[in-house]
Specification:
The chain has nine helices and 16 strands. It has 391 residues and is of the alpha/beta class. It has two domains: 273 residues, Aminopeptidase (3-Layer(aba) Sandwich); 111 residues, Alpha-Beta Plaits. The longest helix has 25 residues. It starts with a helix and ends with a helix. 47% of the residues are buried.
Length: 391
């Protein structure tokens, strides 16, 4: 007699070709931010065919489908993001992006297709279901402040007991899973700085206050914050990613502008780093007689995997693949994910789904213009979504 896991895999394989076709269609016509109208229509139409209770326009352009089970008192939510990135795809494939300057280089097309597939599987086997299921399709994960806050404001978590999400991960082979206990993604903050000096002739620097010198010293000093102000066992990354100043080779400019990012896993570390950045900036500018403007924007909160949900996710993964294909505990990632907003509200777990295939040359990381996935991974993505609902 077939187990429930066997039935789930059978159903995933049955729907696989359709889900690949949906993924490729979404991939060819990527949409960014909240402008995911075509993608949202595809999702809504697919969910309506399953006779789910479907709501559109949630969080501006999000879609929510509810599968209700008679007598059930609990509700699990499964979330996928729908938006693409504003970048050019450099791969050549039959389903390459047909929209200039937009591409699904982070796998959200697969996330959306897999959750549609999971909805099909769960609906097909709903006589085995003991909990209500909410399918959440979210816009604008890639662009701060993200789509999750407005989805939450529109009630997407109302009545939900636990929420799960996943992300395709080319660093793992297809058919593998990774789960981080506790923090899974960091908080990605952004800072912008303007240093004001005194412009002048490059041949007479003694008559100027050179903001390039001040800015260069500041950039060098920044790294001492991580190495000397934060416990060496804590995670922090400080990166200056832009430095602009000057218009001519014989003129010392009046101002320079810098910007960058801070990545942390703990609030107390984030607070200390933010404070120290401005203290270092104030000290260096004061020493040179310069002044500054400093702005600091906190990014998505840390995506936190709660113990009870991690236990559930591990139990499900162990049913789907051999133990050697599960990486636990997996190291946290200092990238940002607006799934963190959900995990701040209710018990949550975010799972990494292996999507690479070294033999096929599928090894490029998310946000790489040559990124792709081994589409066989979507069978496992559908299966883990469905198994979490049945578990």
């Amino acid at each position: 007699m077939k187990t429930l896991t066997d039935k789930i895999f059978d159903s995933c394989r049955f729907h696989f070709d359709d889900i690949v076709a949906i993924r490729r269609d979404i991939h060819m016509y990527p949409e960014t931010d909240f402008n995911v109208h075509r993608t949202a229509d595809i999702v809504a139409n697919q969910l309506k065919e399953l006779e789910l209770q479907v709501k559109t326009g949630i969080g501006k352009t999000g879609v929510v489908g509810d599968l209700e089970v008679s007598g059930a008192t609990k509700r699990i939510a499964l979330r996928a993001d729908m938006d693409a990135l504003p970048m050019q795809e450099l791969r050549n494939s039959p389903y390459k992006s047909r929209i200039d300057g937009k591409a699904h280089m982070c796998g959200h097309d697969a996330h959306t297709a897999m959750l549609i597939g999971a909805a099909k599987v769960i609906s097909q086997l709903k006589f085995e279901l003991k909990t209500n299921v909410r399918f959440i399709f979210q816009p604008s994960e890639e662009k701060f402040p993200g789509g999750a806050p407005v989805m939450i404001k529109d009630g997407v978590l109302d009545g939900v007991d636990q929420i799960y999400g996943l992300h395709v991960w080319p660093l793992l082979e297809s058919g593998q899973f990774a789960i981080c206990p506790g923090p899974a993604f960091g908080q990605p903050d952004v800072f912008e700085i303007e240093i004001k000096g005194k412009g002048g002739h490059a041949a007479f620097p003694q008559l100027a206050i050179d903001p390039i010198i001040v800015g260069s010293q500041f950039v060098s000093m920044l790294q001492s914050i991580a190495s000397r102000n934060v416990d060496g066992l804590e995670s922090v990354v400080i990166s200056v990613t832009q430095f602009h100043g000057g218009t001519a080779d014989n003129v010392i400019p009046q101002t320079v502008k810098l910007s960058g990012t801070v990545r942390t896993l703990k609030k107390e570390v984030q607070v200390k780093v933010q404070q120290r950045i401005e203290e270092v900036l104030a000290g260096i500018t004061s020493a040179h007689g310069a002044t500054y403007n400093f702005s600091y924007q906190e990014g998505y909160p840390v995506t936190y995997n709660h113990e009870q949900c991690v236990t559930e996710a591990l139990a499900v993964a162990e049913k789907l693949v051999d133990a050697k294909e599960i990486f636990y505990p997996y190291s946290p990632i200092l990238g940002g994910e607006d799934f963190g907003y959900y995990s701040q509200k209710i018990p949550a777990c975010f799972i990494f789904l292996g999507a690479g295939n070294k033999a096929k040359g599928i090894v490029n990381m998310c946000h790489d213009p040559r990124f792709d996935i081994d589409e066989k991974c979507m069978i496992y993505g559908m299966a883990v979504h469905a198994s979490l609902a049945f578990n």
